[in-house]
Structures are given as C-alpha cells and as structure tokens.
Amino acid sequence: MEPGLYHILTVSIALFFIGVMGFLTRRNLITMLMSLELILNSVNLNFIAFNKYVWPGKMDGLFFTIFIIAIAAAEAAVAIAIIINLYRSNQSIDVTNAEDLKY
Amino acid sequence: MPNAINIALIPLLPFAGFLLSGLFGRKYIRNFAGMLGTALILGSAILALYTAYDYFFVYGKVDGVYQQFVPLKITWLAFTKELSIDMGLVIDPISVMMLVVVTFVSLMVHIYSLGYLKGEERFATYYAYLGLFTFSMLGLVLASNIFQIYIFWELVGVSSFLLIGFYYDKPSAVAASKKAFIVTRFADLGFLIGILILSYFSGTLDFQELIARLTSPESNEAKAAAASTFLGASALTWGAALVFMGGAGKSAMFPLHIWLPDAMEGPTPVSALIHAATMVVAGVYLVARLFPVFALSTPAVLEMIGWVGAVSAIVAAVIACTQTDIKRVLAYSTMSQIGYMMFALGVSKYGGEAGLGYTASMFHLFTHAMFKALLFLGAGAVIHYVHSNEMKDMGGLRKKMPVTHFTFLIACLSIAGVPFLSGFYSKEEILLAAYHSNTAIYYIALVTSGLTAFYMFRLYFNIFWNKPYEAHGGHHGHGEGGLVMMLPLILLAIGAAGAGYIPFGELVSSDGKALESHFDIAFSAAPVLLGLSGIAIAAWMYLKENKKPENMASSLGGIYKAAYHKFYIDELYLFITKKVLFNLVGKTAAWFDRTIVDGLVNLTGNTTVLVAEGIKKFQSGKVQQYAIYFLAGVVLLAAFFVYVWR
After folding, report:
1. By CA distance, what is B620's nearest residue in A?
2. Residues 597-626 of B with CB under 8 A from A
3. Which candidate among B92, B129, B219, B389 keeps its CA 20 to 30 Å from the CA of B513?
4. What is the DSSP string of B141-176?
5. DSSP element (H, E) containing B447
C-alpha cells in the first residue's frame, strides 16, 4: 500500500503530542528544548505533506519548511545561550529552579 | 486729519519703557531705568499735548460740532464676517482730554518717583510697572471698541495689582493687592456679561456702531434688546447696568469701594497716579464713552448711576472725616470726588443745555486729576519726611517743608471749592447740573461739599499746624526732598490753580456742540459759604492742639464710631464671604469634591487593585504552567472556531 496523506498526518500528530507531552512534563531545560524541536518538526512534516498531496505543482510548503528549519536553528542557539546563562547563575538547568520571573 | 502714527506712539512709548526696564532693568540699566521711563513718558506727554491742540483747534471741529475720528483700525481676531475684535484708536473730545490727563500726571509721577524711590532695591521693576500701567491706561482711553477697552481694563487692573503689592515683603500690602484685584475682578465679571449682552443684541463690538444701533429706537437691534426681558427689566437695561457694575468696581463706587483705601499700601506716587488721578476714573470714562446708550436707551440705569454716585460721595466724605491715616483720608476723598463725577453723569441728559452734567463730570475729572495727584504727592513728601502715615506723628510741618505746605494748601483750597481755583469751577457746574435735574442729589452734593472742605482742612491743619513738629526716632537728616520731588508739586499746583480757566464747555460736551457755561453768584453762594464754614470749623478744631476733637468724637458717640470703622462695610463683606459663603457654599462644594469627585477616582483605583490581586497568581514564573495555559487557549479557540463560529 502506497503511504498517503493520512499516514503522514498521523505521524505528524503523534510527533506533535509527544513533543507537547515532553515540553510539559520534563524538568530538564535541554530536554524541553528537544521537545520543542519535535513540535516544530511535526509542523514541517505537515507542510511537506500538504504541499505534496494537495497542491503538487507548488513550492510554498517547501519554502515554509526551509524557513522554519532556519528559524528553529536560530532559536535553538538563543535558547541554549539562555540555558547556559541560567546555569551560570543557578548552577542548575532544572526548570523548577528558574521561577524568579513572577509577580 | 489725525495722524495715526503720532497717536499710536502715545501708548507705545511707555510700553517700550516697560519692555526695556522689565527685560534689562535688573542687570543692565538698573540706575538708568528711571530716567529712561521718564524720557519716554515725556515724549508721550508732548505728543498728547500736540494731539490735543491739533484736535481742538485745527481739525476736530466740523460745522461747530466736534467729530469722532478713528484714525487707525486693525482687525485683530476675525471670528466671522460680521463679528471681529478690532484694535483701533479713537479720537474725540473725552479721549483727547484723558490723553492729556494721563500722560501729564504720569509724567509728574515718573519725575517725582526719581526722588521718592531713590535707592530702592527694585527701582527698575517699579518703572517697568509704571510704564505698563501708563500704556494700558492710554490704550483704555484710546480703545475704539468695547472688547478692546475690556482688555486694557484688565491690564490696568493687573498693573494696579502689581504696584499695590510692590512692597511684597509686607503682608498688609500683599493682602491689599489681592483684595483690590479680587474686588475689581468680581465687578469685571458683571462688565464682561454686560459686554456680551450689549454686543449680542447690537451685533457689533465697535463703539460707534454699537451706540448708533442701540440708541435709535427704530433699529431692529434696539427693538430686539428692548423686547427680551429678564426679571422685569429689558436686556438692554441689564446690559447697561452690568457694564456700569464694572465701572463702579474700578471707580470704587459704594458698595464696591472697599479695595481703594487698602490700595494705599502701595508706594505713594502710585496712589497719586493710579488710585487718584487716572485708573479709578476709568469707570467714569466708561460711562461717558457709552453715555448715549445710558442717556437715550436706559434712563433708569442712568438714574441708578446718579444715586450710586451721590451715595458714594456722601458716605466717603463722612468716613474721611474720621480717618487718621492721611493716605486713607485722601483715598476716601478720591472716592467721594469720583462719586461727584458719577452723579454728574447720572443727572445729565444727552445734548444741548441739559447735557451740562456730562461736561461738568469731565471737567471735574480733569481738575480732580490735578489737585488730587498734587495732594497725594504732597502727602508722599510728608510721609517721606516723617516716616509715618499717621496724623498724630505730624503737625507743625509748615516751617520744615515750605514748598509742600504751599502747594498742599492750594490743592486743599481747590478741592474745597474756594472761588477762583479749579475745583470751584468744576464743582459749581456739577452742582448746577444736579440742581436743574434732581434736587435730592443736589442737597446731598451740597452737604458733601461742606464735608469735603472740613476733612481736607482737618488734614491740612493736622499736618502743617496743630502741635510743633518733633522728630521721632531722631532721623530727619534729609530736607524736604530734592528738585525732582518739588518740581512736580509746583507744576501740579499751577494746574490745580489754573485748570478751571479752560473753557471746558466749548471743548467737551455730550453731543460735541459748544456749551455755554455761565456762573450765577447767587447760586454759588450756598456751596461757597458751606465750604468756607467747613474750613472754619476745621481751623477751630485743629489749628492748635486741644481737646475739642476728642470731645466732639465722644459726644457724637455711635455715629463717630461707625464712621471710624467705615460703617462696618468691610466687616459685612467678611461676614458674607467667611460666614455665609465659605460655610454654606464652600463647605458643601468641598464635601462634594472630597466624597463624590475624589470618591469616583478612588473607586477606579481600588477596583483595579482588587482585580489585580485576584489574577496576579497566574503569573507564577513556572514556564510549563504558561505552556499549559497557552495550549488550553489554543484548544479552546480551535473548538470555538470549529463548532461555534463556522
């Protein structure tokens, strides 16, 4: 059986919720960042799938995906810089220890 | 034809003086400011005299009638095509006469102040204020429309405020300046409403047109103004009465006179200029300027003006008899004499022989400016010498200050109405006008003229005769005052003696036509005899130091006490303002402000704080919590758009 749109969307949804679950439950900031990447990649997968199956002649979905990858890379760099700074001041990268920014 | 530039320069020269001394006085031209101001006002005075000569003898008269000229008119604020506020210059007999009075007295005061305020810390500031005042007064005199006169009216009020409070480290001076400003402002509120009423109905602000429209009974404007009524009086009557209220406030007419005696806290030359000769007659001038409206359209208001003037004249004269501060005596005397001018207008009619009162009023304004400025400057010289305002510190000064003594005597004789001095002629005319028109006012005026002679000579004898002079505190190193202080006295004395010989009736009259003034010896006998007996009584009581005044005061008892306390009018005002207004209106308003207005504002603030207290827990600092909220929000929105919105 040739894999179709629905198969890919199923994978994408699975990937998305795994990412969400990881983001909400893990305490390690690096792991949370990885979960975030999972969410982004599920979105990428969506773009690609829709582009291929719904508008086969167009390139828009591909461009979006490339943009998202680029932005995700930049975002990862920024996030890691923040995490390093957080580690320097807190000696930990546990998210429960980083609760200073509140009311 | 009048030369607009010459005439415009008359007010602008003092204004230049104000700007120069005001801006650069403290640093650069400190000692030079007085001379500068004096030189500029000298220029103004020469131009004013030239203008007067030119107007009265060269071009002013056409077919035997003095015309009104408007040599300059600039549209300043144009609201609509019909309604604009203009700035203009008006040249007619009364404005030209006032130009001469204001510039001459102002010049005298400028010269005199060079000596009187020598060494004063704020010398340049003083001259700047004087310049501002002279400019505003001249602008008021030359105003060609009713709004312009109002602008300058307020400007003279401000300069009067500044000069009364010139010694601002003296609490009484500060209080007096505030009082003067507030009382006249209160009256000016009436003036403003009056202006609005009159200009609303006449559809113009220009004096010439306003008078023309409101005085001809056929015009639509006059009909409309007469037709709309409020509380039983027509709008026209209300407008005229309210305009007069402004004039009464500025001219210190009963019962708005309370600021004038306190205004004597200012430097004495200022009292001579502002509170005797020029600013306080602005009310008289205003009534004269709008005289056709009062005389032809609202005779009831004119009659009220007559009575207000007469009551002010006699009340002030009675109070003046009991005061011991020499400047206050002069202040009440001023009020009384302005009362004369007012009721002279009040008993007058428009045009012809019946317009004698108008001429007499303007004549008295002119002569009064001379002798009252002289009296104040003389009193200033005395105060300068004695360092006190109180009569009891004076006496026997005639040998020490011969020039002051002589000129003061001339002024006293003149104001008392002794024949052949200026006050005699103008007062006779006023009495004659009153006699022909309103007998009750005539008798009031007659009594007042006797009182005038009495209190003026009470003042004179107490200063220059009575007990021999002994210096208090041992400081009388300086003499009478230098030439700069004596010269104005002498010049004004010449004016006070000779101003009566100006043929005023030919120059100034209500309709511009020459008015024959004739003197009747039989008619003059009564006031002159009364005046002379007033002088005699004053001499009997005060020539030598004795117990008669005290005995007299104690035998008069209550009347004397009431007059000494100025008939408790100040107390009445205090009662009304402090007890009634503050308690009833003020406290209610304060309660409303604190509970309702402030309460609403506080309610907003408190509600915000309360809500914030409730929802601030959401900002927990836990990143994952935020993520859950975010996710929940997205899910809810998605559900909303999928199931509800469609």
Report:
1. A102
2. 616-617, 619-624
3. B219
4. HH--BHHHHHHHHHHHHHHHHHHHTTSTTSHHHHHH
5. helix B439-464
* ipTM topping 0.95: no
Q: Using the beta-carbon criterion (under 8 Å), do B631 and A20 form an inter-chain contact?
A: yes
How many angstroms separate the CA atoms of B122 and B118, rounded?
10
Contact between A99 and B631 using a beta-carbon 8 Å cutoff: no
Pair type for strands B61-62 and B84-91: unpaired
Place of tokens 């019946």: B354
CA distances from B246 to B58, B149, B154, B187, B223 (A): 35, 12, 11, 5, 25
Yes or no, beta carbons of A103 and B617 under 8 Å apart: yes
DSSP B583-604: IIIIHHHHHIIIIIIHHHHHHH
Q: B6, B8, B29: which is closest to B19 by C-alpha?
A: B29
Is B617–A96 a contact, with Cβ atoms under 8 angstroms apart? no
Give chain A's residues under pLDDT 70. none
List, for residues B318-364, the tens digit of each pLDDT value: 888 888 888 888 889 999 999 988 888 888 888 777 778 888 888 88
β-bridge pairing B65-66 and B61-62: antiparallel
Contact A103 B619 (CB under 8 A): yes
- Cβ pair A99:B620 closer than 8 A: yes
Mutate to test the interface with B, among A13, A20, A24, A31 (most CBs of B within 10 A): A24
Show residues of chain A in contact with B631, CB under 8 Å. 20, 24
Residue contact B619–A102, C-beta within 8 A: yes
With CA atoms as reference, the chain A residue closest to B613 would be A103
User: Each residue of B433-461: pLDDT tens digit?
Assistant: 888 888 888 888 888 888 888 888 888 88
d(CA B365, CA B289): 14
Instruction: Give which of B613, B615, B622 to mutate to test A binding, by max A Cβ within 10 Å.
Output: B622
| B540, amino acid identity | W
Instruction: Over range B42-64, report the average pLDDT.
Output: 86
Amino acid at B277: A
Helix %, strand %, coil % for chain B, to 5?
A: 75, 5, 20
Return d(Cα B368, Cα B417) in angstroms, integer: 11
Distance (Å, whole) CA A67 – CA A48: 13
Residues in chain A with CB shorter than 8 Å from the CB of B621 are: 98-102
Amino acid identity of B62?
V
- Among B229, B228, B220, B227, which Cα is nearest to B202's? B220
**Could you tell me how far CA B58 lies from the centroid of its own chain?**
32
Chain B closest-CA separation from residue A55 CA (Å): 24
Contact B624 A98 (CB under 8 A): no
The distance in angstroms from the start CA to the end CA of chain A is: 56
